[in-house]
Amino acid sequence: MLHAALFIRDGAALPVPEGAPVPPPLTDQPGPMEIPDSTDREVLAAQWLEWWGRLVDCEMSEDRRSQGEGSDDTDDTALRVDRILRRRQAVYDPPDFDSLRATPQLQALIQRYFRESLLWAADMKRQHPPGRPPGDPAFPWSLVKGVAEQVATAHGVPIAAVTGTVRILRVKGTWSQPTGPGCTLCSTAAAADPAFAATLLRDTFTSGLGP
Question: Could you tell me if 202 and 150 are in contact, meaning their C-beta atoms sit under 8 angstroms apart?
């Protein structure tokens, strides 16, 4: 969902306020989208920005629960899947996107381009990131293990207590953004930079330990 949303933003050339908690442009830019002349781009950009925040919260909340936050051992798989689906449908419910009725300009734009955005995102994910051999993980296991062990030692906790999730977006530059306890978004360049990646992982693991 996140790459598809960025496809919409970049294809529509929506202005994003400086300092807003959003990624840089995609590394592979989509073609320009047709926007009605009557569209207020500032309003449309504000609507997209609010929607992006909801999408990130939805996606990363699934990762937080997989780490144990809000989990319930008595839940069965069907109930958990149902909760995930309902949470997603509250922010991303094609083809009509009734969840966006309060923001009709954004709803109309996404209705028109959501299929194209999904196809683009799926094709992009099939392509291996430049500079990384096929089959290699985004973060070398030795780096992840080493940083996790350092965090466990520094905080006096068992290694099993050190958890975290980093989702990588195909966006330009060396960029990262924490999105909650134990959760971070980052660019492919950030993951490929050993020093930056080590700091990113350390901060992510540490925040996942809680206060």
Answer: yes
Task: Provide the 3-class DSSP secondary structure of residue 176.
Answer: strand
CB 47 within 8 A of CB 105: yes
Do 185 and 86 meet the contact criterion of CB atoms below 8 Å apart?
no
DSSP alpha helix (H) spans, 16-172? 41-66, 77-89, 104-126, 141-155
Residue in 62, 56, 44, 45 with CA at minimum distance from that of residue 4: 56
Sheet strands side by side (includes 165-169): 165-169, 183-187, 176-180
Residue bearing tokens 């997603």: 88
Rounded to two decimals, the pTM is 0.83
Name the residue among 74, 199, 210, 108 with its Cα closest to residue 147: 199
Q: What is the pLDDT of residues 138-182, one digit of tens each?
A: 888 999 999 999 999 999 999 999 999 999 999 999 999 999 999
Question: Could you give the CA distance from residue 51 to residue 103 in angstroms, rounded to a whole number?
Answer: 9
Give the number of other CB atoms < 10 A from CB of residue 150: 16
Asked whether residue 75 carries a pLDDT value surpassing 60, the answer given is: no
Cβ within 8 Å of residue 189, ≥6 positions away: 172, 173, 174, 175
